[in-house]
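As a warm-up, study this chain.
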Amino acid sequence: MHQAYGVLGYPLGHSLSPYLHNQAFQKLGMDRCYFKWEIKPDDLPDFMSAARLLPLSGVSVTIPYKEEVMSFLDSITGEALEIGAVNTISNENNQLLGTNTDYLGFMAPLTGLEIDSALVLGAGGASRSVLYGLKKLKVPEIYICNRNMDKAEKLAHEFNIHSLEWSKRGDFSSDILINTTPLGTRGNNEDKTPWDFDSLPFRIVYDLVYNPLKTRLLIQAEKNGLQTISGLSMFVHQAREQFRIWTGEVFDADWAVGQLEVNLLVGKSVSR
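Now compare it with the structure written out below.
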């Protein structure tokens, strides 16, 4: 029997996880399969029960379930508990273990960069991993900004950082702007941007959205001559760590980026 893996989320039209993991399984000669599980919120409890019964070997967790799945797990790693979000589930002897590889993926392209201040847009599960990563990188001044101010203030208190009102983000400047919202994602949000201002008072703009390869935000940043970081790097490195947790093997990150860039540019239907 094939070992079954997959990505859990809703919606999943933008996800390249099945393409990447299945390509990696094939490249490394592994008899395993990776699926897409687009599960509506009301059906999440039934899915988590099925994950045990089938059983599923591993699950990638994406929007909007990174926090909600935690209540269905048998154990959670210390890092994931500190972050408050899980993006990786492993089935070990029918025990579901939750961990978080997002923060490692987020940090990967920032290695060697000097960052003294950061503005994070969004207050969901992904932003938790970003804040944890920024703390690990010892960034001294961190602000979080969200359309729902209560959520921003909650995370600001939890991570001992500053909050900023969404309406005032256009007047703020820092070394790096990080978008953790889904605004700009291929599909319903592709024509949207979290930064609808003419100026971009930052040195670096990092958009966690990876599909499309260049979001409206990154295109605007490039036009302003800023350094840009696509979410593709974070996506590949977090997936690489998931792959290692599940299989004990790793795939080459540069190979994966190349595969995904081609996929995104030609828009293969297999990616959706």
